[in-house]
Amino acid sequence: MDSLKVIIAAVSAAAIDICALVLIMSAYSEKKTGKYRWMRMSSCMELAEGGKVYPLEGDEILLGRHASADIRLPDISVSRYHAVLTVANGIWTITDIGSKSGTYVNGMLIQSCQLHENDMITLGSRRLIFRRKVYKHA
């Protein structure tokens, strides 16, 4: 009778291990799929300013000089909460959120504007290029 209990315990432990392995493999697969979807949705875009690059790693990105901004531009000409970048269905949009100096895209004052590759975004005295990510080869 004791050997039957040992066998049942071993089988139960093996079943739990198999379930855990299936969960881990599913989570890994979902992470990989989610990353692929995000890469397609974001179109691998970034903001660049001189030698500085700001990756766009969310579907809503706050731009401003405040410490809580996703992309912080510590410049007095930039409002604390200046503009927000959003992406939906692979299309990026920038919206001014009541900044003092305004938000410009390619020299035009905008309230909200769809972005295209190589657009020049001006926030105060800061000029950022909306561009496809530059990958460095090892």
What features would you highlight for this structure?
six-stranded antiparallel beta sheet, 1 helix, single chain, 138 residues, alpha+beta, five-stranded mixed beta sheet
Q: Give unreliable regions as ranges.
A: none
Helical percentage: 25-40%
Please report the number of helical segments. 1
**Gyration radius, rounded:** 24 Å
What's the average pLDDT?
A: 88
* Shape designation: elongated
Q: How many strands in all?
A: 11
Instruction: Provide the spatial order of strands within the biggest beta sheet.
Output: 2-1-11-10-7-8
Biggest β-sheet, characterized? 6 strands, antiparallel
Kindly name the structural category: alpha+beta
Strand residues, percent: 35-45%
Tell me what the structure shows.
This protein has 138 residues and is α+β, with helices and mostly antiparallel strands. The protein has one helix at residues 2-42, and strands spanning 45-49, 52-55, 60-64, 71-72, 83-88, 91-96, 103-105, 108-110, 112-114, 119-123, 126-132. A six-stranded antiparallel beta sheet has the order 2-1-11-10-7-8, with no helix packed on it. Strand 1 and strand 2 form a beta hairpin. It is elongated and about 85 Å long. The termini are far apart. The mean pLDDT is 88.
Give a short summary of the structure:
This protein is an alpha+beta fold and 138 residues long.
Compile the SSE list and pairings.
Layout: H1 2-42, E1 45-49, E2 52-55, E3 60-64, E4 71-72, E5 83-88, E6 91-96, E7 103-105, E8 108-110, E9 112-114, E10 119-123, E11 126-132
Parallel strand pairs: 3-4
Antiparallel strand pairs: 1-2, 1-11, 3-5, 5-6, 6-9, 7-8, 7-10, 10-11
